[in-house]
Amino acid sequence: MSTVTALPTSTREIRLASRPTGRPVPENFRLAESPLPELQDGQILVRNLFTSVDPYMRGRMNDVKSYSAPFALDAALDGGAVGEVIASRAEGRKVGDAVVHQLGWREYAVLDASATSVARTDLAPASAFLGALGMTGLTAYAGLLKVAEFKPGDAVFVSGAAGAVGSLVGQIAKAMGASRVIGSAGTPDKVARLLELGFDAAFNYNDGPVREQLAKAAGPAGIDVYFDNVGGEHLEAALAVLNVGGRVAMCGAIAQYNSTEPTPAPRNLMLAIGKQLTLRGFLVGSYWHLMGEFAEKAAGWLADGSLQYDETVVDGLENAPQAFMDLLEGANTGKMLVRL
User: Fold this and answer.
1) Burial of residue 305, with CB atoms counted within 10 A of its CB: 0-12 exposed, 13-18 middle, 19 or more buried
2) Hey, which of 1, 119, 154, 203 would disulfide with 213, CB 3.0 to 4.6 Å?
3) What number is the average pLDDT over the span 160-164?
4) CA-CA distance, 82 to 148, in Å (whole number)?
5) DSSP for 111-174?
6) What's the CA gap between 47 and 233, in Å, rounded?
7) CATH number for the domain including 80?
8) Count of structural domains, the chain
9) Are 163 and 233 in contact (CB under 8 A)?
10) What DSSP letter does each residue of 276-308 carry, written as one string?
11) Residue 174 belongs to what domain range?
């Protein structure tokens, strides 16, 4: 006799209780319960396995116009998640499928099947589709190849290199023929991990001025590409060491996300003129069309070992706010995930 498990009718979720000023604190978040709507045609019910916490979410907690809408107060946060379909009224999505979607920060989600993509768990574990094989990986790939116009033989510097995006940038650059890859990180353990991942040089930005450490690591050959996850002092250092015709992919500025005062611009920006540098900001959303191309290459790199990825996993939805706060303080190596 088969037993039918009753489907959930409500979900626990994390809501934004108040807008942070500077560093987020636990009081900015609240664990709540909310009813699940009935499934309509074309919809699926997903039990989330992992939800992603990402630096860009800090900006969405402010009530300012930006490239993605601010989070609403006293409403569930959202963001990348991967989960298992437990009920379906949609063609092309069946019970048991693993899907990636944007209704994270909650245990269950009802959503249109068209707003999901299938995670090919034959290629990698489900969690990888929030990191190395998902938006994180595409950010690294598109930023390096399309925004910074990387070509074989380039010397590449990556800041925040032990993070989810940075660690992949360095490995992709190596796989595609970089002459030298340099990374910065904030602890001795992270520096050691970068060397294990194949970076040619790595330094701890807390050990001294970034500019001096970068110049020493780059040597007389300098750098051709800077992948910027940090901004501030790191960007200033890179401008000093970039070669003529150098390119900067501006992906993030985590050094400034919790700032309550305006942060000084690089004081040596004038170098961009004489060196004929290109500084380009980018958002991964403009490069979704490359996802298929990237996934195919990444699957090959994962298979032959030229691409490895790290995950920092925190258990329990109730611990998602703390995981996010820790992420902004650099407590993660690789992708920060919350396992539900």
Assistant:
1) exposed
2) 203
3) 93
4) 30
5) EEGGG-EE--TTTS-GGGGGTTTSHHHHHHHHIIIIIS---TT-EEEESSTTBHHHHHHHHHHH
6) 42
7) 3.90.180.10
8) 2
9) no
10) T-EEEE--GGGGGGGHHHHHHHHHHHHHHTS--
11) 135-285
